[in-house]
């Protein structure tokens, strides 16, 4: 009863896909418009442009221009109040050459059915996330990120769910489900369960984080495998970028997931017809929904596709870490006697100077890139990243300079008050971060809480300075890079790891400027100054 | 020998005499049986309380009982059908204008001539109770009223989502078993039924008839308190479950019943045992005065017309003659009537020609009394209600 139950349709689909085997992207806009129109969709295009803060090596210099093409399949009998989106990003080269063909075949099949209660929008976007961001902003009449776009001429109702397809080869052995979105936001768990149920029903191998399911939960290997999968999800969520085009839909409360086809040269292969049936089943199930998906969890961690860890379990672990800081703060507060203690001013100075350093770390790399390029033989991206690293390292020298500025320092009470302030500040910061992006908050808590809770000026300076630096936010990011590479079974050497680390910093700055990712400003403006305050305490004399 | 002859002759004469007597006895018995149930007309109130596409099976349940009831003779004018949602024309229905009860689309219970009286958001607890008790605003059309009297047997069928002591209407309100019991008591006191059969197919359905206290009520439910009623089979093309188990087997049982069949209530109680239904159907007969074994299925599901014999003659024209005579004398005095009729115009309608249904309120007698009934004057208002046209199945569902 589904797609391609008769052989003639199967032949048509295979023909279409073979014809499209050559890389088509570089966005053949006219061809796409004609192809969609011939299938009975209402086709519209949208052009957009964006000035990058610094030119990434993948994109053109500073200015990125593109066109999105989308076709709307109107539901034959329903009022046009709700819509579903199926999107296929069009990237140059081979990276997504099959998805558009599958999209067109689905459009042709869907046009002949009468049971659609929602309009279906087939979106082919250029430049991946940027195109999706431009389209979504135009659709919802917002402008969060400062992109320039032409307004949309055609619109369907409010979008209930979205699917993004990435198929790079015509032979698929498994499908990978990608859930992590911008700022660690996740779609409703029902969407993941739906996809997994369909994969099982059609006999398609389904993976998450690129790893297969195992059935031996009791054994040590099974447990390690599940822990590795969950760790990967934590790392991906913590970095705050959208790992598929679907991630930008989540901000508008549209449940979305990305499906990536993987060819791992197994013996058992799935053909395009089965993938089509799977997608058709998913879209039909989403069509039958009467409300947005909201019954299942929005906050979860997946050690495998059939198990999940809910927020009720993992937030407790985080809470215990933050409680350490609060208890320590209470202890410090008892030891401080306020009337006879030093004034607020002595505490205020380190705080203000730390935050000014943080602001410098946030603003200067992007603003000073031209100056850096003039004086040093580096590209813009490298200039930005190296400026950031330089400012970060310069902050380490601060305590000594601060001491010279102020006189009358060195009282026992001074550092206790500063420590109390810093502990409470860190606790509030970590709590707020965990509410928005649990993984980020947890990783920061794990590295920062032990050393900061036990920080005093009386510890051996050299050793504790070293430990402090090794547990600073920048090194946390470096460790995460190495652990991530280990977990995806592509370990890197130190130099490669360093290059990856620099590219992660540039990606973070770019994500913040383009899509509103909060990781870079959080680390630069809040976490780093907080760490600097503890660094100040260490060198209190 | 004479004595022997006399005896034989007497016996023979006695036999001859007793045959017609036995025959008339037989006729009387038969006649007695014919009138034993005491009802003269049948009504049915069939309610589906849930909306949304995934509750397709509740609409299919109600429509399959509707189909059986119509097939066995109850006309649309005596059926009040309440469906909370339109499944046949739902956008998600891959076969528009149909509602199937058996998978592989074997049986379309929507058919060609379904008349839905209360549809969509009109199916509320208030409307249901008003239909039962007859307290409807005067503008309500006939098709939306339960015009039963004290000789009516009523079948009430409810289906939807329920719990312990309540039935959910439209995802927003509930009717409790106490409200239902009180509504039936109102019906009894207003002499609105002779006997009432109550069937409910929901989860924990038996809780709904626990509180009944009016006489002549018999109740059946698909599951006991604490049990769930289960759905029967999904259809993979349509994508939803088509029927509930209890009503599915009830439909199969009713398909065997024809207007002349002698199946009785004990057979109905045996429908869908636990081996088939998974839940345990229950029934309640303590308020019912007759023995369930002597109650025919067609007493409630069919419309076997019975006649009431009266021994007095009733002069039908006499009530109007005085009015016309008074018109001649110019006297405007009108006799005041002693009771308010359920339908104030019922006795006037048959005086008018069929194509002029100017139905007037009681005031017409004051204004048009000088005019002969064949001329219709302006003071007659437009009918206070319009007979709503039956909603036939839209065969194309608008697209």
UniProtKB/TrEMBL annotation, chain A:
Coiled-coil boundaries: none
SUPFAM superfamilies, per database record: Zn-dependent exopeptidases
Keyword Zinc-finger carried by entry: no
Keyword Transmembrane helix among UniProt keywords: yes
TM annotation in the entry: 308-331, 343-364, 422-451, 463-485, 522-540
Pfam families: Gaa1 (PF04114)
The protein's annotated pathway: Glycolipid biosynthesis; glycosylphosphatidylinositol-anchor biosynthesis
Compartment annotation: Endoplasmic reticulum membrane
Membrane topology reported for the UniProt record: Multi-pass membrane protein
Keywords: Disulfide bond, Endoplasmic reticulum, Glycoprotein, GPI-anchor biosynthesis, Membrane, Transmembrane, Transmembrane helix
A single Gene Ontology CC term: GPI-anchor transamidase complex
GO BP: attachment of GPI anchor to protein; GPI anchor biosynthetic process
UniProt superkingdom: Eukaryota
Quaternary structure annotation from Swiss-Prot or TrEMBL: Heteropentamer. Part of the GPI-anchor transamidase complex, consisting of PIGK, PIGT, PIGS, PIGU and GAA1. Interacts with PIGK.
Its biological purpose: Component of the glycosylphosphatidylinositol-anchor (GPI-anchor) transamidase (GPI-T) complex that catalyzes the formation of the linkage between a proprotein and a GPI-anchor and participates in GPI anchored protein biosynthesis. Binds GPI-anchor.
Name of this protein: GPI-anchor transamidase component GPAA1
Species, as recorded: Cyprinus carpio carpio
High-level lineage: Eukaryota, Metazoa, Chordata, Craniata, Vertebrata
From TrEMBL, chain B:
Entry's Gene Ontology cellular component terms: GPI-anchor transamidase complex
Residues annotated as catalytic: 161, 203
Assigned keywords, A-Z: GPI-anchor biosynthesis, Signal
Coiled coil, from the record: none
Alphabetized InterPro entries for the sequence: GPI_transamidase, Peptidase_C13
Quaternary structure and interacting proteins, as annotated: Heteropentamer. Part of the GPI-anchor transamidase complex, consisting of PIGK, PIGT, PIGS, PIGU and GAA1. Interacts with GPAA1. Interacts with PIGT; this interaction, via a disulfide link, stabilizes the expression of GAA1 and PIGK and links them to PIGS.
Designated name of the protein: GPI-anchor transamidase
Source organism: Cyprinus carpio carpio
